[in-house]
Structures are given as C-alpha cells and as structure tokens.
C-alpha cells in the first residue's frame, strides 16, 4: 500500500488508472507539481482496458503515434501494437513519472457528493481487501474521472436463442479464459466489430477454421502494420522531430478520411469497397459481407494491420457468414437460412455495455446529477457540476488525443484558478443553450442502448464536441479557460473572478 493511502484529502482525485488516468496524473505531475494527487483504481493493476482484455491478438485499433502520450513518444515500430506492449507502455510511463506511487488499488468509487459550503467533493469508495471489503471516504478539491465509458465487469451479450443446447465452449472476449485451447478446433466468432476482426485472423493461425458470423457487416480498412513515413525517416530524423511529425501526419490523415466520409459518403464507400476487393479472393461476395447499411463513420471504422483479416480469408483459414442466428445445436450454430455452422467454440464478440463515469453517483449540494440532463462543456465537464472533469476520447481518432487535451486543460484551469485565488469553477451554459445530440454520437449498438443516460451537446462551442483534433487544440490549449465558466473565490462570498 502506498504512502498516499494515508491521505484523507487531496487536491485532485483521479478515478481510473488506465491510459487516461495515468496520462492525467502525469500531466499534473509535470504541470502542477505542487498539487496533491491520488488515483483510485477498481482493479488490482495499472493499465485499464489494456490490462483487462487478454483475448488472442488484442491490439490497438488506432495508430500508436496518436494513441501514445504526447509527452512520451511511442518508439516501437508497429503502428497498431499488441495489447501487452501497450500495457507495458502505460505502466512504464506511470513508473517514470512516479504515478504508480499515487495509485490506490481495489478502490471502486461508489459516489461523490459536492458541498458548496466546503468547496470540496466527498468521495465514497469500496476498498476490497483480502480480509474483506470496507467503505472508505476521501475528500478532494477537484474530481477527475478517467474510467472510460464501458462496464469493465460485464460485456454485452444479446439473447442467443437455444444457447443452452450448445455442447461446446462459449466465451466473451472481455472475460477470456487463460487456459482456453483452440488449436485444431472449429471456432465461430459472433460479431463484426473491432474485436471480431482482431480475433478471427489471430485464432485462424492455429484453429482448424474460424468463421466470423455477422448479422450485418462493418467497414474494414487495411492499414500498414509499420508506418511508411516512420520507416523512411527513423534513421534520418532525430526522434524529437520524428514523433510529432508522424503524429501530425496521422492526425491530419485520419481527419481528412473522416471529413471525406461525412461530406462524400458515396465516394468513401467506393474507395473502401475497392480496397476490400483488392485484398479478397477472386469471386468473393464483397457486397454481402463488407458493405454495411450505414454510412462510413456512423459507427467506428475497423482497421486491420497489413490486411490480416483479408489474408486469412484468401488462404481459406477463415470465412465470413452474414446471416441471423435461429438457434444452436450440440455441435454448432443453426442459421435462419437453414445452414448449420459446426463449432467447438463460440466467441460472443457482441460488444460492450456502457457505464458512464464508472457507474458512480454524483450529487451537488444534495441534488442528484442526472448525466442525461447535463450539457457537456468542451466534451470534458458538465453543466452545473463544479470542479469536475471526465475523459471521453474521440470516436473518429485515437482516444489519447482527446485525453491529453482534457488533462492539459484541467492543468490550465487549476493554474488559472490558483493565480486568481479562485476555489470553484462551474460550467454554466448561457440562457437558451439547448441540447442537440448525445456526447457520443456514434450509431453503434452499445451507444444506442444507453443513449438516454449520456450527457448531451449543444449547438456550438464550448458546448459542442466537433470530433476535430486540430480545432480542439486551438480551443483547449490556446482558447480561454473562463468562457461560460462561473468562478467563485470563497466558499461563502459568491464573488466571481
């Protein structure tokens, strides 16, 4: 147990020790070294998603030059890194900046109550110990939630009719058994998202055959496993220049692809189809299996390094079936078309359950905060909620691009307040500001299932998230910190600054 455990009050309390939480703590160490910081982590290890997911082939679905931290360059060659490498990168970063000493493990936050009278949060957490659990209380001046937006302890599995008849093994990727042996086995992976397109080529290396069973297709784009520009410049340009150069090249390339998808979806669909046709075997029914009903980027794009999914299909080690499940038999999956897919193992890569701010409750002066009734300020704070920030990354780019901006903005805000003797900052929308769309505006199933419980966005900045990193750099790193923000210098006076 770290020395930080004995501290009952801290200046900044971070919830979550994953990619975002470690990055936030590092930024505070770098930019606000005088602040007392603690990190509460529900699990027993640093790494978040990258410690939790252990399924075959788990890797990033964004390039590492943008998924890596801005202050600590990713130096390995692979653009889309494996989960183990990312987990070690996060842990090494935590050790380098002393963040590992700030983490209190097995502390699951239950709720937080803001008191205007005391200008502080009282945070309740459940501490799981070998001898039993206990509820602990910590107070903080600023609460920073970096727990992501999905439920860690339970993945989403839809109703699968007749699954009890199946005689094989059923696995959800979020809870992968360490001892699962699939060598020489017939595997059916249910799903078509990022997890499915990662699992299929990886399992196909040793399985007898892997079938990706999808109700409807996703857009899949092949990317080089090693960044071409980085490969060319690695031995010619100093690292301090190479990393930002490749990072910005990838940022602008991703933003251009996203804007093309939004402004000319027909053209983008044609380009994606052409790319798939080039990598698929001759005569493959691309329009059935790789032509979604939705527009590009209505749901998150699936990226495959060096087209490994397409290679598995070309070589016959894997196949794609687009159909609906009618039921299960002892030896496989029965489809509505009448076909039966033989299987020894069924993997339900069927998605996530959303759980904003880790499922914790919030109250402000005794009034419960309903997230679905709040407006998101700069995509990171909530209307009417003082001294509080949350991290939700981009849906069309690397998560860390946004988490870095949020952490740096929190540091700017804290320094702004300290320089002016301010204690409280509350985002306050101008009269007439109306909610328009959810903060996460994808049309993926996991979002639509929980959309009512998500914060909303307004029509314009700072109450609108544009999914545009260059624009957000100008807004959050160089824009004002006091726009639409109500400050108070005293717990009692109400004087603004």
From TrEMBL:
| Molecular function per GO | flavin adenine dinucleotide binding; N,N-dimethylaniline monooxygenase activity; NADP binding
Which cofactors does it use?
Answer: FAD
Keyword vocabulary terms for this entry: FAD, Flavoprotein, Monooxygenase, NADP, Oxidoreductase
What the entry lists under InterPro entries is as follows: FAD-binding_MO, FAD/NAD-bd_sf, Flavin_mOase-like
Q: Which PANTHER family match?
A: MONOOXYGENASE, PUTATIVE (AFU_ORTHOLOGUE AFUA_8G02570)-RELATED
Give the family from UniProt.
Belongs to the FAD-binding monooxygenase family.
Query: Would you tell me the protein name for this molecule?
Result: FAD-containing monooxygenase EthA
Q: Which organism is it from?
A: Actinophytocola xanthii
